[in-house]
Amino acid sequence: MLRTSGLTKRYGKHAALDRLTLELSAGSFVALLGPNGAGKSTLFQVLTGLFAADEGDVEVAGHSLRHAGPAALHEIGVVFQQMSLDLDLSIRRNLQFQADLHGLPGALARERIAAGCARFGLEGQLDRKVRELSGGNRRKVELVRANLHQPAVLLMDEATVGLDPKSRQDLLAALHADVRERGVCVLWATHWVEETEGADRVIVLHKGQLLADGSRAAVTEALGEATLEAGFIARTQ
Ligand SMILES: Nc1ncnc2c1ncn2[C@@H]1O[C@H](COP(=O)(O)OP(=O)(O)OP(=O)(O)O)[C@@H](O)[C@H]1O
Predict the structure, then answer these.
(1) What atom in ligand 1 is closest to the CA of residue 191?
(2) Mean pLDDT value of segment 139-152
(3) Could you tell me one molecular function GO term of this UniProt entry (predicted)?
(4) Pocket test residue of 13, 32, 42 for ligand 1, highest count of atoms within 8 A of CB
(5) What is the mean pLDDT of residues 52-69?
(6) Least trusted range by pLDDT, from 18-27, 75-84, 222-231
(7) 67, 96 Cβ separation under 8 angstroms
(8) Would you state the CATH architecture of domain 2-75+152-235?
(9) Average pLDDT of the chain?
(10) Is there a contact between 160 and 143 (Cβ–Cβ < 8 Å)?
(11) Counting Cβ atoms within 10 Å, is residue 136 exposed (0-12), middle (13-18) or buried (19+)?
């Protein structure tokens, strides 16, 4: 569903991504675990076409980002670390804007906006400005937005920053439901080991390279300490 081959992105001489090759399947929740500076955000910026890779390519649902950019990008939804909603627009206007960008017909857009918001208990708040919402509800709107065009791949970059435990739980439950019910592939970037719980697969990124890849148990074993957290800390210092 999502493939990268030999993906390299340099800032000057420094390789933030260093020949990264990955293959992620449909219907899987994959945790991308890496310390600060590992290259997680850079990977997301390349996957979403914000920056071009220096080497390598990305394929999303069979479309090459380099050769068929719009088709590849249509299969990606993203929630970045920094909130990117327009604070002075209502929830409805923010979501409608995204629906227009993806060319969703009016009736379908209205239906998906209503269903997406209802899923998070936001249905009574559609005409409120985003500025008036709590951090948790802003995140939920971002997730509704990322899902509006029903992409095959959802990229979540430190998406629980600022969320209370209940909002965090709701967000994760919604994503796991998308994986099960729609066969979405979720790539969940985090530097918190506890956020890999429930993931089908854990990928550990360090200095732009793959350090370990597999189930939590397999990665714990590969990192060579008693717990995943201890191994992660020991091997990424
Ligand atoms: N615009 C930039 N110019 C120069 N170097 C950059 C730039 N953006 C990132 N880097 C460097 O690239 C490397 C990877 O950074 P990146 O932000 O992708 O890591 P990250 O895993 O997302 O970290 P964090 O968990 O702190 O968000 C770091 O060494 C960082 O300093």
Answers:
(1) 25
(2) 94
(3) ATP hydrolysis activity
(4) 42
(5) 95
(6) 75-84
(7) no
(8) 3-Layer(aba) Sandwich (3.40)
(9) 94
(10) no
(11) middle
